[in-house]
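Justification of computing resources. Each target in the renewal requires a structure prediction run like the one illustrated here; the chain below, 855 residues long, is used simply to show the kind of job we budget for.
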Amino acid sequence: MRDTADSSRQKLLIEVLVVVVSALLLSVYLTRPLAFDMKDHAIELGDSRLNAYLQAWVAHSLASDPRHLFDTNMFYPARDTLALSENMLGNQLIFGPVYAATKNPIWASNSVILASFWLCALCMYLLVRYLTGSPWPAAIAGFVFAFAPVRLSQVNHMQLLSMEWMPLSAFFLYGFLIRKNAGNLIAFCGCVAMQVFCSLYLGYMETLLLLALLLGVRLTVPHLLSDRKAILWLGLGAISVGMVLSPVVFPYLRLRHGGVLSPEGEVANTIAASASPIASYLNAGFGPRHIYGHLLGRFHSKDLDWEKNLFPGFLPILLSIIAVAGCLWPKSRLACADGPPNDGRTPKLEPSANQWRSAVVGSVLAVVASYLLSLGPYLRIHDQPSNIRMPYFWLQHWVPGMGVFRVPARFALGLMFGLAILAGAGFLNVLRLGERWRIFRYPHTKAVLTSLAFLFLIQEFDFTPVHLDPVMTPASVAPEYRWLAAQPAGSATLELPISKYGSGFDPYEAAGYVYASSFHWQPLFNGYSGHLPLVYSQVERWAREMPSPNAVDLLRGLGLRYVILHTHKIPPTTLRDWQSSAQGAGLIETARFGPTLVYGLAESPVCLSQVSDLTLGLQAPKIAETGKEFRFLLSLYSPKSCWVAGNLSQAKEIGGEWIEEHSGNVARFATSVDLPLSLGAGEIQLVLASAQEPPPGTYNFRLVSLDHKMLQLMSEKVTLTGLPSTTSINSPRGLSAEYKLRAVSRVFRAGAKGKIEFYARNTGTAVWLSHPPSPAGSVGLGYSWRDANGKEVGTGRIYLQYPVYPGTNYTFTGVIDAPEQPGNYVLSLELVSELVTWFHDVGVRPIKINVEVSP
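Resulting structure tokens:
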């Protein structure tokens, strides 16, 4: 007996050692040469440096000031800036110790990336080993899950790689359903929370996958979910997870409420980042030397192709088909029919056949659900969005936060979870058939077949070597950042230039500034993220106007202390003008490090008026749908430059009343708005706000105060009613409008922004929608530029902020982007109902004007 036990432990130890070492070697090989250049190279210079910075900030903040964890030093003076991206708190288990030992953000970040492949392989191995009792299908499943092309293609996105908690969550979920014990439940809840801490993106995917597995159990082993006590404990576990996660989720909700994380602003990107039903799943970004290079090289997308390398591999697909066949062929000798083999060490669900069938059925559901969601809100046909709505269309409306995730194609990561389990099940079926035919009766023959499968999968999944770029490390910190680190804490800094990239800033340059700040941690006006805080548009505009006295004055008022000027990025003529203007604006050269100059700001009072000079106006809908959030616009105006939010850059409280027209009953409300930092002399800015609605009826809607400082009395008569069936989504024939161009410049500067004021009255029978669940039917002001040859050189949109009912009007006030090249252009302006029709197609003539674009 003792000899048998010792022999079993020895075999188990050998198995663990082989699996751990094999997973590590495969991780090193398939991500080569990352493991050999971890301490001073990054995988591309955009998101990799941003993620390294974010993780370094989390480690720094947790050690020094946990209360301000979400207030990073970038995008100063904005708040909750960590919530502009994934916080990746869960990755601190690996990042934290490496960073504490080395103070090297990129080394610690690369350690997380490499470890994620290794851990995903091990954790999926554990799950399938538990479910099957056999190491061979577990090895196949671990390989497919960890090293799928969709994961290797996202190697620069650390926030999408740490998926190891998904199979662990499933492992403990199955354990709890069988044993109904507290240990498995606590471990399950802990793993779910850790997955969300690693990535909110992956947290949504994990929820989908776990629901699919539970549905598989319900369909095949219903008695495991018939215990009300077990369901109650799962519900309490879910509540506990929500309570643990709430401090991390609240900053994202604040930004969502403030309009920063707005699904409406990501409509076009979400459609472009949706997978094509076939082409994307045959696209792996392989080079011509790959085994499938010539066969699959034709499959690509014109929109965000790098996000759509979703090829799952032909062998995993074949094995998955075999797994499903095992469940559909009940008289076979396959795994679903007989259940997984038991080696005496691995616990089994009872009955074993139904247990394994539940895992297969749940995995099929996970694959189908993930596949459908990856297609986005509208089905793409021939790489173009159609009007066919997909499940993502409804989920982004029904599931809180779903619409913020901009890349539906990434749900293919969740698809590989289910496909990996199915591949393991299919491989088990192959072994079963081999045993039946006496081919694989011995362990060494199974090991040979597994090795051959590994070799084929390596050929299928192997990318070209990962491209690495050198980055700054503690040993190579630029001297200007060493100098800045020695200055008093809180020395707010701006790095220039802010180079243009399209209509925004250069993401690689911005990522470099942000990453470099991890070596000094001074407040930084620069920033980089997929979402931008509301205050940044003003800060960026002032930064581009530097060193004008007005821009210097405004930034000084926000606390700017130093300007770092990288002269090698500026043309010589521009540089001479810049330097000659700097001294007159109060900038004093403080230090010089090769081509980099450091300017300090001379101490002087900021000559801006206070908020008392501000006057407000109200633009609200005359008719609105009851039961919805009531949206309205505040117009802010000042005859001279004044602070509004100043260096607080936070929400201000609005007080208001709904006064019922007939009864005089008053319903009071309070809400908050994010105000601009300041207003220029004679400048008008619009701010979106919302209020709770009373029951249907006719009311005087009145605002009475703003933060108890600016007393106003503004009112509008508003009728709250139901939404009619005729809307801009379903009734293009009911669309009609009258236009008036109230203000626009006839001369624009090339590449600059210009203000426009465009009046539109709804003369049709359909309601113009502003924020529908999907982009379809959302009405906006569309503009286009055409050059002297009639060629379209630029387009854009300004969307409604609230629905506009027939007989009412709306004034679009905003900015439009001018063409990059000087010349004479025709600017065309008209309304569009997205994915439905342009208004000129229903007989409304656009407004066209001739505009000069100057250098």
